[in-house]
């Protein structure tokens, strides 16, 4: 048996074991290159050709899989249901001036709230953003009288 075949077969096994140990797509491209070089070694005794095939197939496999790897790595922030409060109406339970925290009640839960406008107790306000556990609110516009 040709020693080059044994070498490429051993490299295939090593690269597979490395890939299984890391689970991070570290050597999967090298597995493809080593398999291709193994197949080429069945038909030629030229190390130069085998190494070239290994390098080219590994590079092509890497280039072809990069878009997939990027897509898998781009993860969205988990939805925490916090955004569902944006646009909802809360009631001020502790008044505050701009730059100081107020307290508002939303669905029976008291929240710390900030606003760039003064807030008075009992006033209704609209939630415009959420930063941590603090709501950003603005006074609810007065509705037009019903005729």
Describe what this molecule looks like in 3D.
This protein has 147 residues and is α+β, with helices and mostly antiparallel strands. It is built from three helices and five strands, in the order αααβββββ. It has helices at residues 3-22, 28-41, 47-73; strands at 89-94, 102-106, 109-114, 124-131, 134-139. The chain has a five-stranded mixed β-barrel with strand order 1-2-3-5-4. Strand 1 (89-94) and strand 2 form a beta hairpin. The protein is rod-shaped and about 90 Å long. 20% of the residues are buried.
Strand order of the largest sheet: 1-2-3-5-4
H/E series: HHHEEEEE
The geometry reads as: rod-shaped
Beta content comes to: 15-25%
Q: Report Rg.
A: 32 Å
Estimate the helix proportion, in percent.
40-55%
Find the count of extended strands (DSSP E, 2+ residues): 5
Rounded to the nearest angstrom, the distance between the terminal CA atoms is 98 Å
What attributes characterize this protein structure?
21% strand; 5-stranded mixed barrel; alpha+beta; 147 residues
């Amino acid at each position: 048996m040709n020693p080059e075949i044994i070498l490429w077969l051993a490299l295939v096994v090593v690269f597979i074991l490395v890939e299984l140990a890391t689970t991070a797509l570290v050597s999967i491209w090298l597995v493809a290159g080593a398999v291709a070089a193994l197949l080429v070694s069945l038909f030629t005794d030229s190390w130069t050709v085998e190494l070239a095939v290994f390098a080219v197939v590994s590079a092509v496999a890497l280039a072809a899989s990069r878009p997939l790897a990027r897509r898998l790595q781009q993860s969205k922030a988990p939805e925490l249901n916090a955004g569902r409060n944006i646009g909802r109406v809360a009631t001020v339970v502790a008044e505050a001036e701009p730059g100081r925290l107020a307290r508002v009640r939303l669905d029976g839960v008291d929240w710390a709230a900030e606003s760039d406008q003064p807030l008075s107790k009992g006033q209704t306000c609209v939630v415009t953003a959420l930063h941590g556990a603090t709501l950003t609110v603005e006074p609810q516009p007065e509705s037009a009288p019903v005729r």
